[in-house]
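ok, trying the design again with the full structure, not the truncated one.
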């Protein structure tokens, strides 16, 4: 949870001649919640964990109204999309693909007692996931009427994640064609993770009938969801895996 103070007065002019006073999300961490001790907005809470659609709730003082919002690239300042403000409490809108790995900021325009404000809330880039893994296959068993298979599969991994936020979450996703050990130092999930490296060695299982193994690592924050997929084709002659990343 972050406590934010006003850092500087804005110099942008509005059509009603009132200056926009800028209230920054000054914390270095783009967490889910920002609390403000000054200005028309008490807090902004990101509700979504999508890279392509944002929903946030905000709470204002009794006299304040907030009517406009937009999403910007935090580094370049480029406008990414206009957002919709509804009922003086909700911000929502879609974001085009291609901006998943950029840090962003919501800028909310508010008015209170003949004063105008531009309230900032940081939105982190979608999490980054990097995996180095080695699978050792041993003890091939002929199947006869059934597919042959390796009786022993050992997985050695080094996993690094960065959620770009203090309240990120990551977990191992298992599919129906096998299972892998807990890749987070033996655990299958971690909460409130910002950036860390995990190493682990353990047993894995795969489906002999499809000769395949698929699993994924899923990390989320208030700015998006990243999934790193690892898909293996396993036969007696070939054991080959392929990594791919998708944003949601």
């Amino acid at each position: 949870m972050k406590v934010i103070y006003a850092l500087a007065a804005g110099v942008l002019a509005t059509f009603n001649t009132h200056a926009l006073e800028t209230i920054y999300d000054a914390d270095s961490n783009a967490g889910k919640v920002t609390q403000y001790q000054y200005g028309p907005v008490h807090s902004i809470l990101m509700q979504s964990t999508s890279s392509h659609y944002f929903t946030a709730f905000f709470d204002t003082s009794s006299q304040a109204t907030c009517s406009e919002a937009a999403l910007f690239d935090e580094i370049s300042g480029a406008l990414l999309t206009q957002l919709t403000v509804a009922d003086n409490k909700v911000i929502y809108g879609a974001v085009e693909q291609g901006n998943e790995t950029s840090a962003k900021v919501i800028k909310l325009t508010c008015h209170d007692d003949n004063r105008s404000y531009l309230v900032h809330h940081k939105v982190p880039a979608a999490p980054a996931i990097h995996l180095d893994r080695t699978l050792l296959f041993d003890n091939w068993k002929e199947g006869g009427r059934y597919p042959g298979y390796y009786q022993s599969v050992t997985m050695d991994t080094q996993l690094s994640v960065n959620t770009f936020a203090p309240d990120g979450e990551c977990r191992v996703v298992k599919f129906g064609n096998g299972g892998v050990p807990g890749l987070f130092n033996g655990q299958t999930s971690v909460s409130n993770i910002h950036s860390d490296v995990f190493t682990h060695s353990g047993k894995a299982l795969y489906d002999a009938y499809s000769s395949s193994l698929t699993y994924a690592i899923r990390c989320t924050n208030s700015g998006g969801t990243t999934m790193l997929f690892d898909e293996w084709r396993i036969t007696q002659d070939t054991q080959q895996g392929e990594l791919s990343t998708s944003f949601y």
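Keeping the full-length input from now on. The chain has no helices and 20 strands.
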